[in-house]
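Project outcomes to date are best conveyed with an example. Our students and postdoctoral researchers have been running inverse folding experiments weekly, and each run begins with a structure described purely in tokens. The record below, which covers 184 residues, was selected by the lab manager from last quarter's runs and is presented without edits.
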């Protein structure tokens, strides 16, 4: 099966860290399992048709933001950040994604950081960038890469899942009907 390659922007990964650690509970892991309810990353990993791609730059920025003291940042300890980065790498690896170096010289977007995320998508041949950055979402379709909000991505993946289930159900019912006819 061909995997849909996706890149998650720094803001999405930072938001996901709050889901894993619990907002306001500085550094106390609530649920670091890959099955954390409502966690975009857990949902992404469970979808066999998707793979997560990251870059050193994205991981470095996630770590930097998470260590900024609250309320501007996460206020996470160095150990919690290292654990979270390992979790992100595990998700990428288990989803058949990985770590790439951003394609150099990308200057398609006004924001330097967004260009590095786009460079990550191009280097990994990702088709989708998931971001909560509204400015970034407005430049969708740059060099063949869709840019969408996490909720939009999850909604579209749910539609794909439902359609796939209908096809499987129809195939199973068709086989069952064929078997019944052969038994007559």
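After processing, the design step wrote out the following sequence:
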């Amino acid at each position: 099966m061909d995997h849909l390659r996706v890149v998650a922007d720094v803001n999405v990964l930072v938001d996901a860290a709050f889901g894993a650690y619990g907002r306001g509970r500085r550094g106390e892991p609530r649920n670091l399992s890959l099955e954390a309810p409502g966690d975009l990353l857990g949902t992404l990993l469970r979808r066999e048709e998707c793979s997560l791609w990251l870059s050193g730059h994205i991981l470095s920025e996630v770590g930097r933001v998470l260590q900024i003291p609250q309320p501007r940042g996460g206020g996470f300890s160095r150990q919690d950040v290292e654990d979270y980065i390992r979790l992100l790498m595990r998700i990428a690896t288990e989803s058949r994604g990985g770590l790439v170096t951003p394609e150099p010289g990308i200057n398609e977007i006004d924001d330097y950081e967004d260009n590095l995320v786009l460079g990550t998508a191009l280097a990994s041949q990702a088709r989708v960038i998931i971001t909560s950055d509204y400015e970034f979402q407005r430049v969708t379709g740059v060099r063949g890469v869709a840019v969408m909000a996490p909720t939009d991505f999850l909604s579209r993946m749910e539609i794909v899942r439902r359609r796939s289930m209908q096809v499987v159900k129809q195939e199973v019912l068709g086989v069952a009907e064929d078997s019944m006819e052969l038994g007559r």
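The first helix runs from residue 10 to 21. The two ends are 37 Å apart (CA to CA). The training component of this project remains on track.
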